[in-house]
Amino acid sequence: MNKKLQLVLSFCILLTGAALSVNAETAPKGQSPGQEQKHEHHHRMVDESLMKSLLKQGFTKKEIFIAAHIAKFSNKQVGDVLAFYKKSNSSWEKTAQQYGVDLEKIKKHQHHMDKFLETNKQVVLQKVSEYSGKSPQVLQGYLDKGIPLRYLISGAAMAKAANKDLGEIIQMKEQGKSMPEIKKELNLEKEQIHTEMKKLVDEIHQEVRKKK
Predict the structure, then answer these.
(1) 20 and 96 together in one domain
(2) Contact 39, 113 (CB under 8 A)
(3) Where in the sequence is the domain holding 30, given as residue range(s)?
């Protein structure tokens, strides 16, 4: 893969993955909550009403989240994926195979986005700094406290969309609130966040291209 194509792919994964963090409810087995936004997806994730319905049917949030990703990759309904999952003795391997989804592909995308962010950390910090009004030193302080680099991007987008200070968003996260909970508390629509996130990620993308 040439560098230009790799950069474009990284940009797409970053944008879609960051958007996912705003709508996802929980993370698959083996992931920390901060990793939830690293998956690639092409459509909206499970909305609150469907989530509640599926929970009442006995599925866990973790199962619903994983099924949502398989559904997005295969252009299927989450409910259908979960129904097959239940029939196949709760095997994600069989379910993924049934819908032609490569679980390893998802893992590779996760790794690819993290690598992209870390490789271009200074650019990311500089652009988030310009976008949020926080100095790179303050942003580094957030990282030192355990806030993921990718969260600075989605958090900055939410702050901008809600006309809030990024520090307020970080504080809400430190209080244990999830991205969906923060979005709800700020009365934001995912389209608003996506619009701001696209602006920021596009700036990061353009700056990285200049340095290639």
Answers:
(1) yes
(2) no
(3) 3-106
Task: Dump the DSSP string for 37-58.
Answer: GGS--SS----HHHHHHHHHTT
127 and 204 share one domain: yes
pLDDT in tens, the chain (212 residues): 445 444 544 444 455 454 444 444 333 334 433 333 333 333 346 778 888 899 999 988 878 888 888 888 888 999 999 999 999 888 888 898 899 988 777 666 667 777 888 899 999 999 999 999 999 999 999 999 999 898 999 999 999 999 999 999 999 999 988 888 898 899 998 788 888 988 998 899 899 888 77
CA 125 to chain centre: 18
One domain for residues 134 and 182:
yes
Residue 13 lies in a domain: yes
